[in-house]
Amino acid sequence: MNNSINPSAGSILVTGGRLVDGTGLDRSNDGLLIRNGRIEALGAKALDVQADEVIKADGWVLTPGLVDLCCNLREPGNGQKGNIASETRAAAHGGFTTVCASPETSPVNDSGAVTHLIRDGAASRAVVRVLPIGAITRGLEGDLLSDMAGLKSAGCIAVGNGSRGVRNARILRRCMAYAQTFGLTVMFNPENQSLAADGYAHDGLVTSRLGLLGIPEVAETAAVMELLLLAEETGVRLHLSQLSCARSVDMLAEARQRGIQVTADVAMHQLVFTEEALAGFDGRFHVRPPLRSEADRLALVGGVRNGTIDAIVSQHQPHDSAAKQAPLAATEPGLSSIESVLSLGLELVNRDELTLPELIRALTSGPASVIDRSAAIAEGELADLCLFDPAATWQANERTLVSAGRHVPVENRNLPGVVRLTLVEGRKAWESLPA
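Structure tokens predicted for Dihydroorotase family protein (435 residues):
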């Protein structure tokens, strides 16, 4: 198995299988030729050219490379939880070709200097494309505005608050107005910190039964409403990150009807698991926002299905083992999830909760549109591609995982969908082809 980029990428011809992208393409693959980092030809034209390598993909699915709007690479940082090299290899294993790096680094990505540090590290050690997100306030402390002009100039594709809130509404309004002047998208995890307080689970049946401290849904919905009203006033392009409540989906749809520029995403684990995952005090499922009710889960799936929610994200947060082995309340929130996102999505497809094109749209063209990128299978497009076998299965364990974080949502269980090939501009970032 080769999990590093091939430095001398030649031409590749893929024959057979099924082509699916988020723009409506869903048909059999007569031939797809990759040369010089781009898709050079499709169909009969592709078969007329002698390629350096031919891959027979019968029974497999070829899609645009997956795009993740929320990934923690843990660099810069102390390296204990992961780094750019380990986590981008994990991304490639999961079929991702582009990841947006969270500003929650150490030091926080609140200046052009830190952004350049991330980009330089990615240029030398990343096997997929890394797009930094800058911090909207200095140190993510919610008090002083960051140098947004410097962040944009250094290469940040958006600014946001990571998993932290901006407590002062006046400062929040100034942040959004300032970002609007630079044409920057703002990405916010909507949470009213006063209402969330010291909670760490959904304020519902499980917290009542087990005596856990809950975070009510209104902690999210109150923040969603505030952000939508301020976006409407300032005209900023708003992205709501990691929604978890049914009411948030309704509010998002209503805001769009009023003409507010707003997009949104949901973490894959919110589409698959509910508050019941915490019934055994399993620290892996201590996530923020918390896993909520089955009614919320179904509403989030419905939002993806009808396009109200633009993207599914990994919300990948690798931790060292000690961070997840404490009593539940003392564990650190987050799942190591980027390697299993596609497989969990295929489980939703197998249960008829999503169609395969709906899933692929939310993992490719949907998130790409949020950051003004393209993700399509067409002649002339960059050869950022994911080739997977939907019928094959794998298990997430110490032997198969690449991420430094081992706290995966599904361990030692047969998962559908094995990524056979991940290409970034025609170069192999991950390869697991049968002998």
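Residues 218-234 form the longest helix (17 residues).
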